[in-house]
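re: ur question from earlier - yeah i can do the single chain one, its not a big deal. heres the input i used so u can compare w yours
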Amino acid sequence: MVTSSTHETSTERPTSANPEAAHPGTRRSGSPAHHVPRDYAKTPVNVYWETTRACALACRHCRAEAVPGADPNQLSFDEGVKFLKQITEFGDPFPQLILTGGDPLMRPDLYELIDEARKLGIGVSITPAATPALTRDVLAKLKEHGVEGLGLSLDGSTAGRHDSIRGVAGTFDRTIQAMKWAQELEMPLQVNTLVSAETSEDLPAIYELLKPFGVARWSLFFLISVGRGKVLQPLSAGEAENLMGWIYETSKIAPFVVATTEAPSYRRVALEKMRENGMTGDEIRRSGPFRSFGIRDGHGIVFVSHTGEICPAGFLPLVTGNIRQDSLVDIYRNSPTFEALHDPTQFEGRCGHCQYHMLCGGSRSRAFEATGDVLGTDPLCEHDPQLHVI
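and the output i got, formated as tokens:
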């Protein structure tokens, strides 16, 4: 579910009642919106809004390269309200709004913007930074104002491991405390964890740490080397494949949903393991990895920057317009970049020839970072379609 310096790490929204659909918005009729059928080429599931780039942390993998103070050119309150009204133009069911940053808590008009979104019938989730500003009273206030879900980042099982990634001492302890408060307040919680060469061996320990916290969803974000993330080391394709096998086995016994972000090839790995285990087609279709079928960068999600730029995803910095003068709905549905992302038959390289291109499609963000071609091959996947019957 939930983007940020690196908080945009999910395309799903967990809730305690329905963990596969984190922080669901509500339709104007009041019924849950997540599982309402929609055409992802027409309406995204999530709209990520980088409300500000201001943040007190200095995370080593920060996509936004956040800074201590707000950009004077960030969207004003009035511009933010106009943007929120554009979201409703997608029609019912509305997309979910994910407030990211930087740190959205650093916007002085945050609660007013949340109120405006809720008045319009838009569901809201938030991914705050673990700074001293994140208190129990703040979480309680967010819930009072109608925020339906919380996303927190945990990148290590100890303070030393986590804080070395986040760049500020004490961040681990604040994150653990915020998780306890979320549990007390019964706020649906998604925990986002970076997957890189620096963190991968620690994932089993992080999993054990999370088990008592009533987490709805654990989203494993596979590093995209953009922004400050260029200083970290991504996994090789073979290492990622092995890790995905562990993720699949863990997902079968975990007390919460375990999912991947920017690693759609996990669906192929999971499908192959399900077939090996003799699962039927209906059983496979009902399983976790396939309930989010089709949602990927620019096709199911859209990102709006702090200055209003419209991109397919926070980690796919292809500017296709700006909400200050363009229609978010028109850009998402009709711009050449989005139209290409809506159609996996246009993908190129191994992703274009792969028999799993509809199911997976590869990370478009990683393909663009690695090749400069948004339709190119995702290098994280080692699957060779030439060796299989298509």
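The chain has one domain: 46-347. not sure if urs matches, ping me
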